[in-house]
Structures are given as C-alpha cells and as structure tokens.
Amino acid sequence: MSSSAASCLAPPPPHLPCSSRATLPLPSSLLSTAAAARFRPPRTAAAAAPPKGWRPARVSCFRQGQDVPTTSSSDDGASAGFDHISLRPESSRGIKRSLQERIFRFQTQRWTVPWAGDTIVQVMILWIATFWFVGSWIVPFLAHAAGFSKETLTHRGQALYSLLTDITEGLAGIAILHHCLGRFRPLPPGWFEFSLKGRWYLDVALGCLLFPLVNFLSHININLVPMSSGPVAGVSSVEQSIVARDPVAMVLYAVVVTVCAPIWEEIVFRGFLLPSLTRYMPLPWSILVSAAAFALAHFNAQRVMPLVFLGVVMGGVFARSRNLLASMVLHSLWNGFVFLDLMK
C-alpha cells in the first residue's frame, strides 16, 4: 500500500518535544501506527514494487465518494474495448461518406452526347408521328387493299394483325433513329448497349419489388380520371380474345406486349432520350423527364401516374447498369404481369 493511502487511513503521530519526558496516553492503534511509521525501514526498488499478481485496493478518502475505476494501459481487454468504441464513429462516418459519394456519382453521371437539342426533338417527333401514321394509316390501307379489315377478322386474325402492326411500327422507329443519328457515327461508348454480363439482374429484381406500388398508383389514377364512354383503342381486341379463351390469339398478344413493345419503347425512351437529356440536365432529372415522355406517349390519361413511376424505375435500372437489356426485361415483366392480371 502506498504512503498516500496510509495517510488517509491513520492521522500522523503527535509531535512531542525531545526535552520532555512526559508521555500522553494514546490508543493502542495509534501507538502501533506511529511506531510503524517511525521505525519503518527504507524502501528499496524491489520493495516499492508490489508483488507479481498483486493489485492495490481502491480506497476513497472522501465520505460517500464514488470509487473511480482504475484502468491500466497494459490491460488488453480494456484497451480493446476502448478501441472498439472509438472506431464506431469512424465506421459510421465512413459508411455515410461512401453513400454520399455514390449518390454524387449517380447524380453527375453523363453520357457523351454528340448531338444537340434540335436532333433530340426531331427524333422524338418523327418517332411518335411514324407510330401513329403506320398504325392508323399505312397498315389499315394495306389491309384494305388486300380485301379485308381488322374488324372482320377472327380473334386469331386480329392478334396476328396487331403483331404485324407492332413489328412494322418498331422497325420504322429504328429506321428513324438510324437515319437521324447516321451523321454522328461512330457513336461514343455507352450508347445502345446490350450485354448479358454484369449484375444487372439484381437491379431488375429490385425493380420487380416495386410492381405493387405501380399497381396501387394505377388504381388511384383510375379513381381520379373517370372512365371514357367509348372503347379503349388497342385493348378491346385483347380482352375479346381473353374472353373467348383462344390460346393462339393469347400467345400472339403475349408476344406483342412482352417482346415487341418493350424492345421498341426502351430503345427510344431509355436508349436514346434519357442519355441525350444528360447533356442539358442532371441524371435524376433526365430520368424523370424521359419517364414523363414515356407516359404521355401512351395517350391514356388513366395510366399517366403508374407509367411515370414505372418509367422512373426503368430509367434508374438502366442508368445503374448502362444496359438496355435490363430495362427491357423489367418492362417485359411488368407487361406480362398486367397481361396475366387481365386473364383472371
């Protein structure tokens, strides 16, 4: 025990003059303490060090004082505990910094766009006009010249008619892209990429988890916009084939909605429009604007809200993967989900 601890336990002996022989009666405890203090042998280096494995007791010199825990710098367990506690703020700051860097990189991602805004507007206007002109005029005119019309066909004939119309519209749209962007070839890297490599399927799986929210927005949109009295174009023939339970017609319609439509629409809206907009605005705004254009191109007020949200999801998947195959697969899965829902 150290001298400071001994001074706290017992008061120092009273100082008596040397010339006086008179002694005062003292308690035996004080006598033993004073004698021990007076005749204590000098400490050596070996005696000053406590025996190995012996730890000094914690003594409080104050009344009702709380003992302060003693720690040793050589205590591996305690030091490890303090190191662990001190690393937690650092690890949390590291995670936060990494997340902020990823968000910043996502917001600042851009494609190298060799064309200007006039080319973007030209392609989109020609694409929409071509789809309308081919589907509403050219194909019906050719069918009339062949001696039949869509209304007089059977369920299988109408399904085949829709498939051929959709293929013609898609090829016409690709021809417009090829013509308008021909003077900019070869295109910079990252344009119209298709690849089976990478982990894009994980982004597709995350996008599929949002399908219930898209369906919920669809119900809200239908309640906000009243149903039109006239028949909806492009839906009546599909519903008639489903009611008739014609398997061949349903397969043909399934090819239209799950194969053809995703390919043509993703090439235009995610493959061309979204990257082109990054020349003038950040990536999140490019995703939102391209999603709004995708929804408006369907010309259906009852599907604007879910289509905008779906376009944002598909745009995010494409922007993360830089792979058109990812957004096409997600688009195809959503159309298949809607088609199966109609078959109930």
UniProtKB/TrEMBL annotation:
InterPro entries: Rce1/LyrA-like_dom. Residues 65-85 are annotated as: Disordered. Signal peptide: none annotated. Residues 249-336 form the CAAX prenyl protease 2/Lysostaphin resistance protein A-like domain. Residues 70-81 have a biased composition (Low complexity). The chain crosses the membrane at residues 115-139, 200-222, 242-264, 285-304. GO terms for biological process: CAAX-box protein maturation; photosynthetic acclimation. The keyword Membrane applies. GO terms for cellular component: chloroplast. It comes from the Eukaryota. One of its GO terms (molecular function) is endopeptidase activity. Keywords: Membrane, Transmembrane, Transmembrane helix. PANTHER family: CAAX AMINO TERMINAL PROTEASE (PTHR43592), CAAX AMINO TERMINAL PROTEASE FAMILY PROTEIN (PTHR43592:SF24). This is CAAX prenyl protease 2/Lysostaphin resistance protein A-like domain-containing protein.
